[in-house]
Design brief:
By secondary structure, the protein is an alpha+beta fold. It has helices at about 50-55, 100-110, 120, 125-140, 160-175, 255-260, 270-280, 280-295, 400-410, 415-420; strands at about 60-65, 70-80, 90-95, 115, 190-195, 200-205, 210-215, 220-225, 235-240, 250-255, 300-310, 320-330, 335, 340, 365-370, 375-380, 385-390, 420-435, 445-460, 470, 480-485.
Length: about 500
């Protein structure tokens, strides 16, 4: 394994890059290994609140400048510590993915609704094809020969042939059915379907995967279950839209933090404009989301929220291509009144492309609620929480954690000066909570819930030619730029999950 259980920190000697502050001769973070989690100690039992035990202020400010001003770590952050008086570590494992789990999710979102096999449901009818032909001919009449912005190949030839596409659809129109034949099913793995191979129709099974469509009083929903990358499992529920100008165009939901980050960006959408599109109060939306998740019985709570915006078009998110908005709720579990911290990272990445390990992503449950209910839901990788492995675990104080954070933000970003004219990190929130760590080299479906500190924010950066590449104040960001184990000060790679 090229990367140990928890990242080994290298000693850097980039003295030529040093600016206003000197890099320590050695890191204050200990090397982490598989044995470190077995050495956690229990602390003294006290009745003092957690923030007092940690000796943490309510707010922390500091600015450190390195690499002749090319790297700035600007911290102006509220410190968020749950109202708890004890912290434990817990054993966790991947919950068994079986028919019972599938039935629970199906019932939570589609109780009493009819669900149809997705392969047959997605067959295009004559009306569907004719609408697309009409749209493509409209593009041609307007002189728009590359409506989906495919561009040209290395020889300068268009990658999208509008006339050929129209001709192909007109040929398909001749044999397309007037109506689809719906096959009602119970969501499950190993459902049979017909597949065309050559000139023959062959019956196959959809192993470890399900694709269906649920018809509800609020419209039709795509419903997919993916268990191909065990132990990871994902349930995806997305409402079909009937207000898209062109169904072939890209469309989808985007987190509000990305469109609100930079007023100078072409993707910027004002918060007031998003609110105008909502059509539902926060309280009503939260109630709907909670009712759905409570039916799962997985003991998940709302731990964070954001706006969701629905846009279409090949250029991505744009205000004039925004059709809808909703509230995006992030659910996770709480233990000891301390939530598992939500971040943008799904975990379960590989340390390199040649890795043969089978990764395990974090548990997640994200739901977007609009004016007529659920718009999209993504959930999966559910945990079974076992017993306490270390009771009232001994924690490092806040001052020690901050020293590690400031040193390692420098060490891990020293190469910025090689490819950017400057970068300023804007850390706006410091959060104490749980995360799950595991050792994929030993076991890819068991791990530990441990307390950690996460440092959330954004950054401003310029390319070597002075062009602004990124501008993000970090005010609304759910991106954690550093995760520190609150027990021993080791650095956890959020993308890998250890």
């Amino acid at each position: 394994m090229k990367r140990k259980l928890l990242t080994v920190l290298f000693c850097f000697s980039f003295t030529a890059l040093m600016g206003c502050e000197k890099t320590p001769e050695e890191t204050i973070v200990r090397e982490k290994g598989a044995q470190s989690t077995n050495q956690y100690e229990s602390g003294e039992v006290t009745n003092s609140p957690l923030h007092k035990r940690l000796k943490a202020p309510k707010h922390y400010e500091n600015e450190s400048v390195y690499a002749d001003g090319k790297l700035v770590i600007h911290t102006d952050a509220d410190i968020m510590i749950p109202n708890a008086d004890t912290v434990n570590t817990y054993a966790v494992s991947a919950k068994e993915v079986n028919q019972d789990m599938i039935d629970k999710v199906t019932k939570a979102f589609f109780e009493g609704d009819k669900i149809y096999h997705g392969y047959q449901y997605s067959i295009r009818t004559k009306d569907d094809i004719q609408q697309q032909i009409t749209t493509l001919k409209k593009y041609k009449s307007e002189g728009n020969l590359d409506p989906y912005e495919y561009g040209t190949d290395e020889n300068g030839e268009p990658q999208f042939d509008l006339d050929a596409t129209i001709a192909r659809y007109e040929e398909e129109l001749k044999t397309a059915p007037e109506e689809i034949e719906k096959q009602e099913v119970t969501p499950a793995f190993n459902l049979e379907y017909w597949s065309k191979k050559g000139d023959e129709q062959v019956k196959e099974k959809d192993v470890d995967h399900f694709m269906g469509v649920a018809e509800t009083k609020n419209g039709a929903f795509q419903y997919r279950i993916n268990y191909l990358l065990k132990p990871n499992v994902e349930f995806t529920i997305t409402k079909n839209r009937d207000d898209l100008p062109d169904k072939m165009e890209f469309s989808g939901w985007t987190e509000g933090q990305f469109v609100l980050a930079n007023p100078e960006s072409e993707n910027y959408i004002e918060e007031e404009y998003i609110k105008e599109k909502l059509g539902i109060s926060y309280e009503e939306a939260e109630k709907i989301a909670k009712e759905k998740v409570e039916k799962l019985g997985f003991d998940l709570s709302v731990v964070d929220w954001d706006y969701g915006v629905f846009c279409y078009g090949e250029q991505g998110v744009h205000k004039d291509k925004m059709l809808d908005a909703g509230y995006l709720f992030h659910f996770s579990r709480k233990l000891d009144d301390i939530p598992v911290t939500y971040t943008l990272s799904y975990g379960g990445a590989l340390d390199d492309m040649d890795s043969t390990l089978k990764p395990w992503g974090y548990e997640y449950c994200d739901i977007i609620i609009g004016d007529d209910g659920v718009q999209e839901a993504k959930l999966g990788n559910f945990y079974d929480v076992g017993g306490i492995t270390t009771e009232n675990v001994k924690l490092m104080d806040f001052e020690s954690i901050i020293k590690i954070y400031e040193q390692m933000m420098e060490v891990s970003n020293l190469d910025v000066a090689n490819y950017e004219a400057g970068r300023t990190y804007n850390i706006r929130k410091i959060v104490f909570g749980y995360t799950r760590i595991y050792d994929p080299a030993a076991d890819n479906d068991t791990g530990l819930l441990v307390p950690v500190w996460d440092f959330f924010g954004g950054f401003d950066s310029k390319s070597l030619d002075g062009e602004v590449v990124e501008r993000n104040s970090g005010e609304r960001s759910a991106q954690s730029f550093m995760t520190i184990n609150a027990i021993d000060g080791t650095i956890i790679d959020r993308e890998l999950g250890y």
